[in-house]
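the two lines:
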Amino acid sequence: MKKILVVDDEENIRLLYKEELEDAGYQVALAGTAEEALEKIRKQIPDVITLDIKMPGMDGIEFMGKLKEENKNIPVILCSAFGQYKQDFRVWASDAYVVKSADLRELKLTIKKILAQGS
Amino acid sequence: MNSENHSSADETLGLEILKKVSRFASSTLDLDETLQQIIQVIMEELKVDTCAIYLSEKGGKQFQLTAWSGLPVEPSSNIVLEIGMGITGWVAQNKQTLALKDAWNDHRFVYFPEIGEERFKSMLSVPMLFKGESLGVINVHTHEERDFTNSEISILETISSQVSGSINNAMLFRRSEMLNKELSILYDISLAVQTTLKLEHGLWIILSGITMGQAGGFNRAMLFTVNEKENVLQGLMGLGPDSPEDAFRIWSELGWKKGNLLQWIIKEVEIGEYRKSRFNEFARGITVPLRPGEHILAETVLQKKPFNVKNGRSHPLVTEEFHHQLGVDAFSTVPLIAHEEVLGVILVDNRYNGKPITEPQLQLLTRFATHASWVMENSRLFSRLLDTNRELLTTKEQLSETEKLAALGEMAAEVAHEIKNPLVSIGGFARRLQEKIHTLTVVEASERDLESITNYGGIIVKEVSRLEKLLKDTLIYSKSGKLDLEECDLNSLLEEVLDLFKTWCYEKNIEVQADLSPDVVQIPVDKQRIKQVMINLLYNAMESMENGGQLKVKCYNDEFAGRQKMVTITFSDTGGGIPDEVFKNIFNPFFTTKVSGTGMGLSICRKIVEGHGGTIRVENVIGQGVKVILHLPLQKVSDYIKNE
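prediction for all of em together
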């Protein structure tokens, strides 16, 4: 079973993602901050990370930069409420960018694609 | 009587006269009084029918009939002879006495109807010399034909030479008194004019000065202003009596109100007394097109020179209509000039006392005109200042309006963010609810209940997606204009900009260290905008190091997350850093700590850099300095975002 780490500071969103992604057949771990995510990753390396950009403390882009630099070859999907970060060149280092929506079909499709690439 | 007796009698007479003359000569400095006494003595002693004294004017070029007795001349008349003209002019020019038994038939005789000399047969004319110059001429006439004896001639010559000194003194005294009066009035008027900012008040004060008995002394004065837009001269105001009776009333009221002139005139202006006069209305009704060769007023503007019209009836530039309207033959115009530009014209006349306009009066008028020009120019400048001020205020209002909008935009984005997240979970769970209902096997729920629950879920889902769409559409993105991208060597651009600051660095004792990696790749940027960013950032750094310091500029190839290639430029100063409360706001538009700044600097920089897909970050160490880090990507934004 593929493992997904959901990083988001909003509890309800984490819950929604967990239920939806579990229903879709993934094993889901949750983290509310970048620091917490690092801890989770140390314990178990996920196959994909969905990463919220706007978070207190270290934001998603910075965290992704760190992850990628440490040569952790974990695909990162950046998630944000809006599309404005797409213009930031650092975001281009991510594997995908998904605008958050109540309709999770796009996110699930993106995860599927990325996992397919990896395997 | 033998000749000896005769001469001793003459001597006695001469002595008698001299005694009389010297007595009054030292008693008064008043010119008119002095002249009248001289005339009296001469007429008594020489037993003549008339005596007239002409005094020099315009440095001896003209001689004016100043005092007389026995001549049928009107007191108000102005009789002036050119030097060399007529018998009197000849005597003045040649500085020689002329005794004419039959003056009427002398070849030098010129007939003046105003003087009425034709009634007299013989004439004795003696020059009055002072320090070798003709100060004037004394004339005596007799009805009967008379052969003036040598002793009579010598008596008049003696008197003339004796009184010339005191006449000269009296003339000087009169002139200095006039100058004094003039100066004090001009001083009062300039004071009054300076203390009032209302154009109308200032101009009324000046017109009052022009028409005031002891100042300009003109009967009436009108002021016209140049209307550049319509290219006409427009009557603005007129000051003067409406009729001879009115003139008498005004002049008896209008004593020189020294000291409170300003208040008095302003009061009159405020209650509309000045504006009410028919003459003012007449002046305001005059409009003259500024075309050459048509009208004396227009000509005064176009030629920038005064005109002294003696006979309006025959003057080529005085229209019949204007002559009729004015109702006088003699008047003068003077242009109002400031900064070599004609602002208007003042016209004066002596409609009611008919006095001719004299040279000193015209000189005084010119001085008043200068004051009027200043008043008008000041008022023009002042109103321009007011306009500019008003404009500034409007701009300021607009700016704060923009500021509000910008703040509103930021708030909207913030709110949108805050709404979006709960919306995602509400909508997401509603979707789940909807799906779950189908798998429910609750026996108690009827088919119909399940159907309506599904509908409710559907409504929530639909409404949420509507809101999501709405938020996406209304969210204000920061747009940074269209960029004009071209491959650019950032090192040479930096060198170019640093060169601009060279002198300043030298003056402020700022050491510049430029560490520009030679292998920095060319990247697509809008050269002008990135240059603007560099200038802005350097400017801030320089300003923080008023007392010298060190400026480090670095430029090198770099990458983000080990894969995203970029060029990094850093600017580090040793200006002591930014206080925390300021640092919080550095990217806020309209935030500034500078007296003359707009606060747009850093927020514009950020917009430009973000427009390139890059980032700008400021590291602040209080007590040390500020480091600004710019990242510019190698790729273009348009390669990643298509039409968003």
